[in-house]
């Protein structure tokens, strides 16, 4: 291949990537800035004006999340180059991150087949078996389980949603007073970052459908059921720009933190957040503030679930938000068919950043037309994502006290455990193998069974190595073990000459809900065949793997 031809290909790829990056619409005259904890907003504004002499009208529009040191900077695009301003802000020593305030897009595609008017999606993920154990609502300790749903708006009065809508009982609606002292005025029906009150937002079928998949009231002789028959749905409305996303997430975190610190006297026991929106072809590096929020949510006990792209692209290579955010408290979901569970053609994938599939194509649920409640088909990763969100909420309701005993005292550990239960109990799916982190699709019944087996007794099954993925491996591989006791086991890696190359104990902290998936970075191993051994005392198992 000639150098000129290679250069032409690289130039084409650059043009394509640049064009894709320009697709993300940003709000004019706004820059999201995250300061260092010790930095003063007034000082940073002064420094920015010094760096851009003669630039008028730089001002802080609002503190998006003061506790996270995130502010929204306003400026006149006719007076200063936006790129020049962003570069100047990023160079200031007191600024941690600076990014544009991008608009996100709802991630729904629309079916045209009337035969989809059925809930095959619930059968696919094993809900009938799961409902035999729990239909949601309360933890064993009596905490009311809440899910935060970020949307433009939903028909909260829909007969299948109204019984499960969350209300802040510590707030008196419409009196312009922060009755419960949580820092928010009149947040009785949730929070609207745009209007700074509980305005329900722009009602649309998208928001209604997402809420319904998570928690449409079940067993009420009306319409459909959600993954949870009983759960409280916290409405975060008019969430369209990144500034509004951050503000909505901050409200969510504040309510969960308040619940943790008051032992349930105030706030809300929010266990999961749902984002059925995103931006195609965007990279996490360009959205550092947005991505950082997921760790902040996880720290107070909230698992976040996000939709990946509705295009047939490898997001590891081509980018996507929020899929590519590097947080251990985020689950990225793609789309599989509700009937057969195979990957839909037009859905994103990525062995690094997309975790699992869930039914989107063929979902039938509650919808709305203006103020009128309806039912119908709902499609895309927008529909896939709330299935996983609902599953996280359902796990909290299982009658296993040890599963959630540390939900208030060590909320991050509890959130990690719930994420782990979802991702380690998928149904293997060949069309997702090697293009998602788990190689499978959501299976709520398996997750519920795992909790039951690990709650009341010793693990079942013989010592075994269930699988090694991928095999052959280029860099990181994952190994799933079956362990017949709550003990630490040894993992050894040998080359074919019998030389030991690696040794460690697993799990580090054995217990009823310890992870049974071990991750190993094989990038530095030379190409060849290796043996993995796993066991303790006289019981051992081994498997071969290939490094390419």
- Biggest beta sheet summary: 6 strands, parallel
Give the CATH architecture of the largest domain.
3-Layer(aba) Sandwich
> How helix-rich are the residues, as a percent range?
25-40%
Low-confidence stretches: 1-22, 110-116
Q: Which CATH top level class of the largest domain fits?
A: Alpha Beta
CATH fold name of the largest domain: Rossmann fold
Strand order of the largest sheet: 7-6-8-10-12-13
Q: Roughly what fraction of the amino acids lie in strands?
A: 25-35%
Instruction: Give the N-terminus to C-terminus distance in angstroms.
Output: 25 Å
Overall pLDDT level: 92
Mind telling me the C-alpha Rg?
24 Å
Q: Supply the number of helical segments.
A: 13
CATH superfamily of the largest domain: Peptidase S8/S53 domain
Structural class: alpha+beta
Overall domain count? 3
The count of DSSP E runs of length 2 or more, i.e. the number of strands, is 24
What best-fitting shape do the alpha-carbon axes yield?
Answer: globular
Topology (SSEs and partners):
Blueprint: H1 3-21, E1 26-35, H2 41-51, E2 59-65, E3 70-74, H3 82-91, E4 95-102, E5 105-106, H4 120-124, H5 127-131, E6 145-150, H6 205-215, E7 232-236, H7 242-261, E8 269-275, E9 277-280, H8 288-299, E10 303-307, H9 315-318, E11 320-321, E12 330-337, E13 356-361, E14 363-369, E15 372-378, H10 381-396, H11 401-404, H12 411-423, E16 427-428, E17 440-441, H13 444-455, E18 464-469, E19 476-482, E20 489-495, E21 500-506, E22 517-521, E23 528-536, E24 539-547
Parallel strand pairs: 6-7, 6-8, 8-10, 10-12, 12-13
Antiparallel strand pairs: 1-3, 1-4, 2-3, 5-9, 9-11, 14-15, 16-17, 18-19, 19-22, 20-21, 20-23, 23-24
